[in-house]
Amino acid sequence: MTFPATGSNIQVQSYKHNGKLHRVWEETLVLQGTSQEIIGGNDRIIVRESDGRKWRTREPAICYFHAQKWFNVIAMIRADGVYYYCNLGTPFVWDEEALKYIDYDLDIKVFPDRTYKILDEDEYRLHQEQMNYPREVDLNVQQGLQELQSWICQGKGPFNPDFPEQWYERFLSYR
Fold first, then answer.
1. In this protein, which residues make up the domain named DUF402 (predicted)?
2. CATH number, span 9-167
């Protein structure tokens, strides 16, 4: 299997458990692509929603995807600090068309002071019932949530204070 080349632009697609396309990020620059991790950067890109709406991101972001983790992380670089938006979902798949994952609704927003808030628990429970998530999926999502919270508290991976700065500088070197 090949992986996206460093310096290439890729599309990121999220799906729902029922297989329906949820959201598409039009252009992310691959800063590092391996069989285990893809780190990308983007700035003010167009995002398409499944209902046809489009919007543009407001700030530069560094995206972290892992081939074995049930979450992905977006570090948003703002004037008042780095905010993180974390999606609970399947590990990524790269099929040469796009980086893809299934989004399971639960999210965590992390603030510059490292405090965080779990979001969309009601939406997760509703979709869990509507789409009949298998027990294994629920266990993986809950384990991903716990691991993500641990990474946040420990400053591990993309939550290491040097991570967004280092990768953002690399992103700028491509522009």
1. 18-155
2. 2.40.380.10
- For residue 175, the Cα-to-chain-centroid distance in whole angstroms is 22
Q: Of these residues, 23, 58, 170, 175, which one is catalytic?
A: 23
Instruction: Quote the pTM value.
Output: 0.95
Looking at residue 113, the DSSP 8-state letter turns out to be T
Positions of E strands within 16-167: 21-33, 37-43, 46-49, 54-56, 60-66, 71-78, 81-89, 93-94, 99-110, 116-119
Whether 56 is catalytic is: no
With H, G, I as helix, E, B as strand and everything else as coil, classify residue 175.
coil
The candidate with the shortest Cα–Cα distance to 159, out of 24, 167, 105, 10, is 167
H helix or E strand, kind and range, residue 11: strand 9-15
Q: How does pLDDT run across 107-139, given as a tens digit for each residue? A: 999 999 999 999 999 999 999 999 999 999 999
Cβ atoms within 10 Å of 91's Cβ, excluding its own: 17
Q: What is the dihedral of CA 126, 14, 109, 74, to 10 degrees?
A: 170
> How far, CA to CA in Å, does 46 sit from each of 23, 81, 86?
11, 23, 19
